[in-house]
Amino acid sequence: MTQPSSFRVRPFPLALFLSLFVVLFSACASTSPFVGVVTPVAGPTPPSSGPDVLGGTGEPGPVDNLEEALLCLAEGQPVYGVMASTAKVRQGPDLEACRIGRAPARSPVRIQAIFSQDGQLRVTANPLDQDQLPPLIGYQEDIQPIFQSACNSCHGETVQNLGLKVTEYEALMEGSENGPVIVPGDPENSLLWRQIRDNIMPLVGELDAVEKEKVRAWIQAGAPESRPSLPPAEELWFQLHPDTFNLVENQCPAQEASQSFVNGELVRLASCGLPPTEEQIAQLLPAPEFQAAAPSGGEGQASETGGGQTGSAALAAAPVRPAISPGRVGIQVAPLGLPAPSDADPWLIPQGGFCIEQRLQRLEGDFGITSMAFAPDGRLFLGLDSPSVGDIDPNIMFDAFHPSRSIGVYQSVSGDSFYTILQESSRVTGLDYANGALYVSRAGEVGRIVDGGGYERLAAGFPVNGRLFHANNGISVVDGWVYVSVGGVRDGYSDGLINPGTTDPPEETQAVNMAAGGNPYGARLVRASLDRLLSERNIGAFQTAARGFRNPYGLTSDPFGRLWITDNGATNVPGEYGAGDEVDLFDPRTLSPAARAGDENATPFYGFPLVLSGVVKEWYTPPVLELVNTAAPTGITWAYGTVFFAQYGRNPGLYRMANAGGRLVAERILLAWPIQAVTTAPDGAIWIGTGDGGVYRLAPGCN
Length: 703
Prior knowledge:
The chain is built from 11 helices and 34 strands.
């Protein structure tokens, strides 16, 4: 099956690359049309900007009006504005409320929520808070996207069970063959709401709490087709984040720190997700020809506890992170002398003396591969999802729990068999084979499949953010311990810097918990004794092994019992700052007795998210490699005496690590996109899985 080095594969269409989605894989019987040669063609230009929650641009999304601001808040993103003039920040949404701060003219401010003149909440980043008024909610803006995602397969354009179509307003309001399903203003007498409330619908899995509340609030508000018109800006008050204005000493009554307001007329809306750029500020508020000198002292000065830079200037100078020496990681292989990654590199043609052969090809291209693991006998286990190239199924967009994902088995030695051993699964992102069983990390839980048996859940309760594709990711069984790399549910930059300052508990612990959404098993590397986990079958068997990650995706072990981790960093971080895209190394043998006993504060801390805001302490564990922002590293494996890892973001492909005269470097040996899974076969060769279902074997010297 070995192909010549000029072998090329049909290119992947350049499309949405945030992650992999579901495949309806029930038709995959044990057949053998999976190996084949594809006509050589030129490859596409891979993505250059990397994954980006603001649409791939890496720039703040513009906000031109209140409606766009509401959409931004409803998506959980902060809205930024620019002060049109110096304004007093007040304790409440009232001109007579006590003054607690000052927002200087032309300074960026972060808007947390919007209130009406009478002090009632209009909209916030948390839709669950929007029930104090008839909410600003409409079918087109808020409800149709939910139904399109969760209900389209049974009540959409193609299929309408019982004659009910929920993806168009008029059809939904007409109801089903049995009559209306919505009583405007009365959720409890609306059949649609009762079915959703009681988790009867949708069939593919219940809506989350926020989505349910949106549906209920929409019906309660009269089930309008569109959001109602908004009052003028002067009748609204913007609640500001306390880090984006200057506090002043005052005699105001005790208050929560977040209760800080400016009148909407004094703010020019600017951007969604990120502070506005200097160019945006200049466009909104052209600099006057003459400017008065800034006053010294007086009530406009910031206090020592709350002053300083605001908005985009609040990001501290880029922290200097100490480099880790090659001697500490034991990599001695020399560089291959390859040039820096370029869009002009050949597509799927390896460099540096490696050869490639395609070993598995789904002829219709109807699945993608999220994870891989070998058994000693050569069986290759594959986590399967729908492809991340071409047209994306809208029903499963951002859905970590869609029930139609699978695990397949490919006989890599003979190449003549492929079958599935698990269907109707949530997203599978980690696989490892040990002691006669396949260990599985899938959204929210871990489990195993003993050879010849069915799936057994071992622990559930890990945090999941379907929208960011964050969950428990890799899994590795090493020396009697089960390790799981678990992502956070906050970006750490796009949705606000996490820099809680000096607190009790220590700031590192608080920052990690904020990134994890309060879940003690998120934004961490966790581990459990295999014997205890199999006995208790509960998430309580896990303890923190290391902290300070954003979304650690790939996880693998080396022959020395160490763990290698790829951490997928924050999005939209300015290029001069490290975003946390990196390769990390964890050695269980270096854990202190306190850490082994379960003291989380004694475990290694890799820095995220505090390094985003300039906090770097000498005891932080440095990364092995600090990667370019939005590199989005994914799969990782140890082979041929070094580490190989993949990137699906900026400069995508497969990389090999080397010792370049006392410093560690990574060289791209293969341009391909998107690679999510990388593993090592029993014979030592490297295998990769791609977003269109291709499986490839790489070996040096065409072995």
